Automatic annotation (TrEMBL):
PANTHER family assigned: CENTROMERE PROTEIN E, KINESIN FAMILY MEMBER 5A
Gene Ontology annotations of biological process type: microtubule-based movement; system development
Biological function: Essential for normal male fertility and for progressive motility of spermatozoa.
Family membership noted in the UniProt record: Belongs to the TRAFAC class myosin-kinesin ATPase superfamily. Kinesin family.
Organism encoding this protein: Cyprinus carpio
Major subcellular site: cytoplasm
Record-linked SUPFAM superfamilies: P-loop containing nucleoside triphosphate hydrolases
A Pfam family hit: KIF9
Molecular-function annotations in GO: ATP binding; microtubule binding; microtubule motor activity
GO terms under cellular component: microtubule
Name of the protein described by the UniProt record: Kinesin-like protein
Keyword Membrane assigned: no
Record-annotated membrane-spanning stretches: none
Residues given in the record as ATP binding sites: 88-95
Length: 724
């Protein structure tokens, strides 16, 4: 089994018959299939050659299993997925090939023999431990049914309607389908026979026990090594597929419910052929897997991560030559499909954690032994305690002051703590230099003169009378503008640098999770509830859409059948009153058409109502999401960044005269990055307040200013123009 792309293997099995059409069908030694009648008839080709992997003519069940299925089953123990599929006309021997005759042990089919092979391999491979689970899925009239749901000891993934879901690795699984753990061949065969009894069968002219549904019997295998201690394990699954046979109503003579079942069977097989055509064409970008439940459930078996084998069952009689040709054409297309099998290897997270814990413990012991050999007894590599951290801090201080010549190296954690203490010292020096620079700028601007506002100024006390006498005449407005702009730029630049060194804000992704858990928990809860309702309504809308599409297709089909029936009818019966009388078949079609129309109208009304609900729920979700993001941005800016007015100054660049009021500009200068200095504290700069407290203070002060301006006359506002 290779992980590279490989074509699907195709075998032909001919149903044994006494009237084999040797004049029409030849089986050359090269295992190809050939329909004769060479030449042309009515300008149409009358001879075809089909190159396949093998022809099974008058072959026993055992030989069929050896040639078709054995390599796929053994590949599952190496971690490769496998699929064996039987396709063909109704009554051609698909179920016999896949399941066999339960009455005779010799006539067992592929599934019982595969189960026997699986448990024989489990016994022989003593160096591995295996777990085997089984599932049995039936697709009847585009409805998926769990054939083992009657067993109480099932491992059900979910209860309710069965749905096909996409897996992260590209595969598919059926949600709600029960998985049953089996320990031996007998338990597995019991489940197989239980599911076979629950299958739906019918009767028509070509087959007295015709399967009316597609069935997928899946064997899930998980293998773990007993000898290796790693956390890796492999999984695989074997899909053994018994497809319902294609039917021609003219030959089967099906009526009523059997006819309806035949319609669904032919439609799903038609969708399967469309998928095969798309997979065989390398230019096709889209493959319509979702057109039917069958193709969606077999998505990874058709051109995916799987070793796939097709057994095409055909008749050997001349009367069935057209259906035989159709089956052979399908088999030839299937042979052009490329699959990409690969080993399904996984890592058990629990065992991985245990392995890493053992490795850590081993490394600790090895390090302890190394310390002992190098006479470093008593050295610990654990996290330092508070007492040890204080001791390291004391050593760094004595080293910097010259009282200690060198710091002894004890352990890696001690070295890390030494560097951390050095970093704190450097940051403290930088902060002190920045404070001194700000004080110098304050003093130079304070010498301009006294500036009065609403109680807050440059951070300097009012000059004494003696100082005022020595000050030159009051400077002009332009000079004051220049001094204030210089001060703003200098202070802003200093505080921006300090912000980089002292309080770098956390990433928004981490802050957003904290916000949702604390301050925004209520909005987040409402958003989650609205999302849940939206998801429920969207799922309901999708289901209604599928029902409408299915009903529409059925309507078109019944309408077409009714039109064909009326065209074939020679005349029309009338009653004694002269009213037309419908035949039984025509009446049945008319009643079906009426029922489908009523169903379509009702479903469409439900669809419109649900679509309105989905739109409204989407609107609520968008509102909640917008509010959550808006509140988060406000909270993030208040908690970690500069106040809004300072950010606007930083973003716009130079401060233009008249751009902001002087009182607010000066207040900003004294409040950036926790620097709060009042007029009653001359020549003192406080850098101990955190940015969060500063932001709260700044916001409260702004609200107070607004209230004061609202209660008093506009003359109390001190704008830049007041400095004339």
């Amino acid at each position: 089994m290779s992980s590279q792309a490989s074509p699907v293997k195709v075998f032909i099995r001919i149903r044994p018959t006494a009237s084999f059409a040797h004049e029409l069908i030849e089986c050359p030694p090269d295992q190809s299939r050939k329909d004769s009648n060479k030449g042309k008839r009515n300008n149409q080709l009358s001879s075809w050659v089909f190159q396949l992997n093998g022809v099974l003519d008058n072959v026993s069940q055992e030989d069929t299993y050896d040639r078709v299925a054995r390599s796929v089953v053994l590949g599952a123990f190496a971690g490769y997925n496998g699929t064996i599929m039987c396709f063909g006309q109704t009554g051609a021997g698909k179920t016999y090939t896949m399941t066999g005759a339960a009455e005779t042990y010799k006539h067992r089919g592929i599934i019982p023999r595969a189960l026997q092979e699986v448990f024989q391999e489990v016994e022989h491979r003593a160096d591995h431990t295996f777990s085997v689970h089984l599932s049995f899925l039936e697709i009847y009239n585009e409805t998926m049914v769990d054939l083992l749901s009657s067993i109480k000891k099932e491992k059900s993934l979910n209860s309710g309607v069965l749905t096909v879901i996409e897996e992260p690795g590209g595969g598919v699984s059926v949600k709600g389908l029960s998985l049953h753990l089996v320990h031996n061949e007998e338990e597995a065969l019991n489940l197989l026979f239980e599911g076979e009894m629950n299958r739906i069968i019918g009767q028509h002219a070509l087959n007295k026990h015709s399967s009316r549904s597609h069935c997928i019997f899946t064997i899930h295998i998980e293998s773990r090594s007993r000898t290796l201690s790693d956390a890796k394990y492999i999984t695989s699954k074997l899909n053994l597929v018994d497809l319902a046979g294609s039917e021609r109503l003219g030959k089967t003579g099906s009526e009523g419910q059997v006819q309806m079942e035949a319609m669904y069977i032919n439609k799903s097989l038609s969708f399967l052929e469309q998928v095969i055509l798309a997979l065989a064409d390398s230019r096709r970008e889209h493959v319509p897997f979702r057109q039917s439940k069958l193709t969606h459930a077999l998505k990874d078996s058709l051109g995916g991560n799987c070793n796939t084998v097709l057994v095409a069952n055909i008749y050997g009689e001349a009367a069935q030559i057209e259906e035989t040709l159709s089956t052979l054409r399908f088999a030839t297309r299937m042979k052009c499909v490329q699959t990409k099998p690969s080993i399904n290897e996984h890592v058990d997270p629990v065992l991985q954690v245990r392995r890493l814990e053992k490795e850590i413990q081993f490394l600790k012991e090895e390090l302890s032994m190394c310390n002992t050999l190098t006479n470093r007894v008593g050295v610990s590599n654990e996290i330092l305690s508070e007492r040890q951290v204080e001791e390291v801090r004391s050593q760094v201080q004595r080293y910097l002051s010259g009282l200690l010549d060198e710091i002894p190296i004890v352990s890696i954690t001690q070295i890390q703590e030494v560097f951390a203490q050095f970093k704190k010292v450097v940051l403290y020096k930088l902060m002190s230099r920045a404070s001194l620079t700000v004080l110098q700028v304050q003093g130079s601007v304070g010498a301009v003169g006294e500036v009065e506002s609403c109680g807050y100024g440059l951070g300097l006390a009012k000059s004494s009378q003696k100082h005022q006498r020595n000050v030159s005449p009051k400077p002009s407005k332009a000079r004051k503008d220049k001094q204030i702009i210089l001060l703003l730029r200098t202070r802003l630049n200093i505080n921006v640098k300090l912000n980089v060194f002292l309080s770098s804000p956390p990433p928004k992704t981490e802050a957003f999770e904290d916000f949702k858990a604390e301050r925004g928990s209520e909005i987040n809860r409402i958003l989650k509830e609205n999302k849940a309702v939206l998801s429920e309504r969207t799922t309901q809308l999708r289901i209604l859409t599928d029902v409408i599409n299915t009903t529409k297709r059925d309507l078109d089909y019944i309408t077409y059948e009714l039109r064909q029936f009326r065209e074939r009818k020679q005349g029309q019966f009338v009653s004694a009153e002269g009213e037309p009388v419908l035949e039984e078949a025509e009446l049945s079609l008319v009643m079906q058409l009426k029922e489908l129309k009523n169903r379509y109208r009702q479903t469409y009304e439900d669809f419109r109502s649900t679509k309105t609900e989905v739109s409204y729920c989407q609107h609520l979700v968008n509102q909640c999401r917008t509010r959550l993001l808006t509140e988060f941005e406000r909270w993030y800016n208040e908690s970690f960044l500069f106040p809004g007015d300072v950010l606007s100054v930083l973003e716009t660049g130079p401060v233009r005269p008249g751009h902001i009021p002087v009182d607010k500009a000066l207040t900003l200068v004294s409040n950036i990055q926790g620097c709060q200095v009042f007029t009653t504290q001359p020549a003192q700069l406080l850098l101990t307040t955190s940015p969060i407290v500063t932001a709260s203070f700044y916001n409260a002060y702004n609200r107070t200013l607004k209230r004061v301006r609202h209660l008093h006359t506009p003359d109390t506002s001190f704008h830049y123009s007041a400095l004339k």
